[in-house]
Amino acid sequence: MTDKPKALADVTILDLSHLLQGPFATQLLADMGANVIKVERPGQGDLFRTLTFNNRWVGGSESPNFLAWNRNKRSLALDLKAPDAKAILYKIAEKADIVVQNFRPGVLGKLGFGYEDFRKINPRIIYCSGSGYGDSGPYLSRPGQDMLLQGLTGIAAATGRGDGPPVPVGSGFSDQIGAMNMVYGILTALYWRERSGEGQEIKVDLMSAMLAHQGQEMLMAMNFHEDFQRPRSGIGHPGMDAPFGVYPTSDGWVTIAMSPFKRLVGVLGDDNLLVYDDPKTLFERRDEVWEELAKRTKAWSTAELMKALLAVDIWCGEVKTHLQAEQDPQVRHMQAIASYEHPVAGHVKVVAPAVKMSATPAEIAKPAPLVGQHSREILAEFGYAADQIDALVASGAVGETLPG
């Protein structure tokens, strides 16, 4: 635990979000000290508590998907449809700075938890909504899931080999980009409120986010009226020429980025490859060039090839698995992997906060919570007496889970 101040220590966030987009956004803010009150369904909690990879559970019962996006938060288990829920959330909203939610458009508004409802209680409140496709239009009823957005916005069609199917990115890329846009909007709104005293509503949708984060690819396609054609080889981007790509070695793979072709040929030791050395050829025959280069790189071990390429300033890198990345010397040097102790899962390794700040550093101060673990604590902070809390728990409006 650091004794340095937290930049967002006086910011309270009412977190009504679930799954990945909203929870990652609020975790980023929690890492910087924000007081995040995560509202979950009694007993069940966030849907991500029941989803995992390959039916594997940390500590035997905890979802890695949930643990990844919910540290540094407290859980208030609340039945949003219970009559008492509205009074509780409105009472918290009187002092809250931010509301974050990623329900389908209109769902919370029908329950009385939309922006206008909270604004009447607290005109300074900042209300951030996340969705798949905005709050109107022909896709309004479609599910806004990450891979579906990758398919709709061009990134899957631009990824993979030309003789194979489109390839989604191997992580929840759309949701994480959406989360970053939420944080960007929230911090902008906080700064504006400091100047104006006014709150506002923020809307983030995954479709717009994914298009914006493919700005250079979209600009090329739209202005030249031509889609990228995926290469049939390991070329790493549909708009790039050789040698840009992924190449086999005798014991693994290496990446080679924008590098002088003649210098690369010099390392590989075969001047016959220089027949390809002009920009037009390196693009139009890039699959052929990749195949010829790959025949040569296979003769090297990864370590030997990396040493030779780096010696002449070729832009290159090893291809590593997640476990290999954890042990990477630069990753270890940067202390990019951290851990925390969870009351059920035990010792949990996590990725450390990525943003470094000298005066107000991010910190992992709390593990991901159990469902309703902090219900009593939170309600007491907002003025509820012990007997009132007992009654709310007894009625089922409020839930709780105690560690151990």
UniProtKB/TrEMBL annotation:
MF (Gene Ontology): transferase activity
Pfam family, any one: CoA_transf_3
Origin superkingdom: Bacteria
The entry's keywords: Transferase
Keyword Chaperone in record: no
Presence of keyword Transferase: yes
PANTHER family noted in UniProt: BLL6097 PROTEIN, SUCCINATE--HYDROXYMETHYLGLUTARATE COA-TRANSFERASE
Annotated protein name in UniProt: CoA transferase
